[in-house]
């Protein structure tokens, strides 16, 4: 097994390559510039295709083309670029095409700044573009995890023929950690729907336009049953010390990693607290969180935004008598373990 | 008995939904005939635009994907790079290519993507019922320029062939017309040349085709063809803008 020292962009890129990604299109934007740089070299090495597009709009549509042709393909960007991609992501979902999009979330709104943020939670988990659709969202908290989850994202995208997001941030994009590289995937499911020339078969077409009355609604019901299947099968989360705690801190991504240190410290001082960490932000682990907060008196939600995932926590806690508190730092602010520890004590 | 005319294999038997006198039916048939003649049907992948021609996936009898409005050249770029032995073309209208998709077509051309582009210019937005297009001619009435396009207010039309002719990545660039039989025949020749260029792997081949839109022009089909000849061809000269080196005009 290969072990390498990589930053989050490189670790994710290697996860994509291990998963058989053959196409990358992207556009420079901080804090993930290392991603296209790294892919420009690696795609050449593995005989894949790298294209520096003229915009994120174009990047995602190139990914659409690559996915339509039946290849594992991806793009990466950061928040403002991901906003530009929403049209394409909606078409990917509408045409049921698999693709992976990595968002190294930075501060917004507008041009914001280039520091870590979680302000794109709503955009990521509610579809993001127009229409009634969802994207699978994986939120890693280390370089190892962004490697593993990028790999997993390709499998999920193919399995459900739906775009899958890996939601990192400026912190994970730029920090270096050792990463165990996954072995190269060599066996892939066939894609009989791909448009790659109709030799020996009937022509294929890919579309999201259904003008005949009733056909679009039927298509949407079909998507809905697929989304229900994903909600049933693909939930991932982690919890630390939640089983016997009356106080639960809920956080995800790098923010959860910072919060974990604060939770550990609080526990050492005798505070009865656990950490619940959703890994799939959609599908959100509602039932699992509900189970762990059954006997909780207090819930503290910590995010690097003004409070977005807290809406999902409230849905999970709908029948709970626990009081729900929020601590967040919006775009430009990164909490440290000390301040989260102080918040834990204050509530 | 000898068959002298029949539907090309590259067209499905579906009845198309284009209006009477519309240029799309003619142009799509020409493309299908050329693909049959070059025996490319099972190797061809088309990218349909947003606009009236999106429905071409019902009419072309080979692999077709839709693309978001204006993004067909980006979609085609990826497909052709990954499947270099297939024939990849985009089929785009003037709103799609010359307004919302200008970035995509210019950069695909600048990169010299080895695809063919068929650009149908009928000087109006068809599917949305007749608004001003980037190629609407000064004086032409549309639903958003009810007194005619006034350049001082609405800006000037884009001449796409002239614009793209400065780009090194485009190897073959021609504007043709469908206003009469000889124009239709030279359009077919240009389509064939575009595919042959693509088979040579030299770069982008681009054919702009002037076409009718009787419904939105509020003219009958004959008046429409006359309008293409007398008005459009004056503003948009029908000629070869760029010829691949070493080939005859």
From TrEMBL, chain B:
Superkingdom: Bacteria
Pfam families: TPP_enzyme_C
Keyword Oxidoreductase appears in the UniProt entry: yes
Example GO molecular function: oxidoreductase activity, acting on the aldehyde or oxo group of donors, iron-sulfur protein as acceptor
Residues annotated as transmembrane: none
Keywords: Oxidoreductase
Enzyme Commission number, as recorded: 1.2.-.-
GO term, biological process aspect, one: cellular respiration
Thiamine pyrophosphate enzyme TPP-binding domain span: 58-209
PANTHER family linked: 2-OXOGLUTARATE OXIDOREDUCTASE SUBUNIT KORB-RELATED, SUBUNIT OF PYRUVATE:FLAVODOXIN OXIDOREDUCTASE
Protein name as catalogued: 2-oxoglutarate oxidoreductase subunit KorB
Protein species of origin: candidate division TA06 bacterium ADurb.Bin131
């Amino acid at each position: 097994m290969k072990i390498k020292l990589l930053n989050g962009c490189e670790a994710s890129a290697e996860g994509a390559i291990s998963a058989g990604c053959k196409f990358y299109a992207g556009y420079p934007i901080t804090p993930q510039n290392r991603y296209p740089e790294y892919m420009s070299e690696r795609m050449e090495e593995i005989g894949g295709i790298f294209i520096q597009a003229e915009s994120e709009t174009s990047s995602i549509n190139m990914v659409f083309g690559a996915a339509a042709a039946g290849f594992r393909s991806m793009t990466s960007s950061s928040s403002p670029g991901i906003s530009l991609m929403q049209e394409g992501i909606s078409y990917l979902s509408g045409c049921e095409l698999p693709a992976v999009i990595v968002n190294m979330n930075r501060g917004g709104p507008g041009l914001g700044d280039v520091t870590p943020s979680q302000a794109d939670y709503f955009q990521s988990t509610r579809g993001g573009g127009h229409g009634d659709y969802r994207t699978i969202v994986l939120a890693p908290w280390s370089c190892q995890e962004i490697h593993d989850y990028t790999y997993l994202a390709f499998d999920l995208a193919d399995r459900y023929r739906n775009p899958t997001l890996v939601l990192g941030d400026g912190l994970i994009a730029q920090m270096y950690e050792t990463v165990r590289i996954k072995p190269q995937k060599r066996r892939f499911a066939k894609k009989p729907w791909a448009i790659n020339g109709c030799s020996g078969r009937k022509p294929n077409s890919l579309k999201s336009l259904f003008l005949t009355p009733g056909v679009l609604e039927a298509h949407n019901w079909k998507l809905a049953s697929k989304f229900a299947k994903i909600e049933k099968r693909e939930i991932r989360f982690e919890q630390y010390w939640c089983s016997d705690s009356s106080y639960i801190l809920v956080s995800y991504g790098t923010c959860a990693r910072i919060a974990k240190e604060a939770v550990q410290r609080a526990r050492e001082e005798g505070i009865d607290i656990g950490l619940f960490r959703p890994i799939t932000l959609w599908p959100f682990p509602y039932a699992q969180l509900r189970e762990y907060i059954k006997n909780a008196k207090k819930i503290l939600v910590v995010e690097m935004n003004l409070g977005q995932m807290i809406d999902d926590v409230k849905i999970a806690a709908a029948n709970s008598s626990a009081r729900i508190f929020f601590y967040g730092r919006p775009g430009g602010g990164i909490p440290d373990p000390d301040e989260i520890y102080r918040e834990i004590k204050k509530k | 008995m000898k068959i002298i005319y029949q539907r090309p294999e590259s067209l499905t038997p579906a009845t198309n939904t284009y209006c009477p006198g519309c240029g799309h039916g003619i142009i799509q048939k020409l493309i299908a005939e050329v693909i049959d003649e070059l025996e490319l049907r099972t190797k061809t992948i088309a990218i349909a635009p947003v606009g009236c021609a999106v429905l071409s996936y019902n009419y072309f009898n080979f692999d077709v994907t839709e693309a978001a409005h204006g993004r067909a050249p980006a979609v085609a770029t990826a497909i052709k790079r990954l499947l270099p032995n297939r024939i990849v073309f985009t089929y785009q209208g003037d709103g799609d290519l010359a307004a919302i998709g200008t970035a995509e077509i210019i950069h695909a051309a600048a990169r010299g993507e080895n695809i063919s582009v068929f650009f149908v210019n009928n000087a109006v937005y068809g599917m949305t019922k007749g608004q001003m297009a980037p190629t609407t001619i000064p004086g032409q009435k549309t639903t958003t320029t009810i007194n005619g396009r006034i350049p001082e207010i609405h800006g000037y039309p884009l001449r796409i062939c002239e614009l793209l002719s400065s780009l090194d990545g485009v190897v073959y660039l021609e504007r043709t017309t469908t206003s009469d039989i000889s124009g239709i025949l030279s359009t077919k020749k240009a389509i064939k040349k575009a595919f042959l260029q693509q088979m040579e792997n030299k770069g982008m081949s681009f054919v702009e085709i002037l076409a009718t839109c009787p419904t939105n022009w509020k003219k009958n089909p004959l008046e429409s063809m006359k309008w293409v000849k007398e008005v459009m061809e004056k503003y948009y000269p029908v000629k070869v803008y760029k010829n691949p080196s070493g080939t005859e005009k």
